[in-house]
Amino acid sequence: MKLTQHPEYQRVYIANGEAFRLCEQAIIQWQAHNNTISVPAYGLTWTYESAREFVRDLSTLFQEYNHILWNGFNYCCQCGGQCCVADASNIQPFDLLAITLLDQSAPGLAENISASERQCIYLVNRRCSWPAEWRTIKCWSFYCLGTGPWRPDTSISELRGEITRELQQLVRTRLPLPLQRYETIQGFALADSLDDPVAFSEAIHNALFEIFVDPLNEVYPIIDLQLGNNSSNTPPEPRGTLTTSLLLDDQVATFIAQAVEEASETPPVVPTELAISVEQLLQDLEALQWIIEGHPSHESKLLHELYLHYANAPAPAPGDPPSIWYRMCDYLSKM
Description:
Layout: H1 9-33, E1 37-39, E2 44-46, H2 48-72, H3 75-79, H4 93-101, E3 123-124, E4 127-128, H5 137-141, H6 156-174, H7 177-186, H8 197-219, H9 247-265, H10 278-294, H11 299-310, H12 324-334
Antiparallel strand pairs: 1-2, 3-4
Helix pairs in contact: 1-4, 2-6, 9-10, 9-12, 11-12
């Protein structure tokens, strides 16, 4: 299709191309001035060279992260990149600063592209057109179980748990020191978010804003900190929120499989705040599966009706995992 006809052309490709040039200017000025940027809240100081080393370390971490996904498990190979969908990349300022620090550039696409309107605009002949040294953190972080087939007699949660544990081990041992300092100050481990890779990506970006992007922007205030895949007439989302996209379908599908298994094997206790039954939950899960597979024209109305069943689900107590009812409410609210 024509590049200009792709739905991401203006709000992703053009917007991020312009943002890249701003980030590039900031880094060029920093290199020329060769000054030190201090981050007293975290006891950090950045030079141009230390920032380059930091980005190289992060690149190595995510290269190893994806080596685990592609060589340690068979899901990515079976799937073949079906998660490379429109609105999934969620390019952030650090991604553009990183490629500049690595002497790379934002992708330049041809007049005619191979991506369909439902695929990521940066997907060229089934390969990512971003530099191999730096994919976007969200894309690099993402993992799922694909569409199967899965090993018999094994629960979905156990299969995901195998991946999560391997990735957590890698992140805990290879996380660059500035991010370790962030963890110490904030009092939590970034790897603990890895049971939800999109949440992990958001946690990493939030940390990078705190320790690098914000301090750099104070010295070279030309970076649009609200950068995101937003159209020109849509208010930018606040930093740290999860964007609703086709990528959410995959997360919901995984949740549905887990929830059906949980509700069927060990029926959960219905909270007193909810006027539904376990049987109704199973029916709603089936309806939700149909919605994400077909995306009917009255999808919003159907999702709202389902949401009302779970709107009063109680939040988990501190330290407790969220209940199946609360997770259902959370996913429906995101959709």
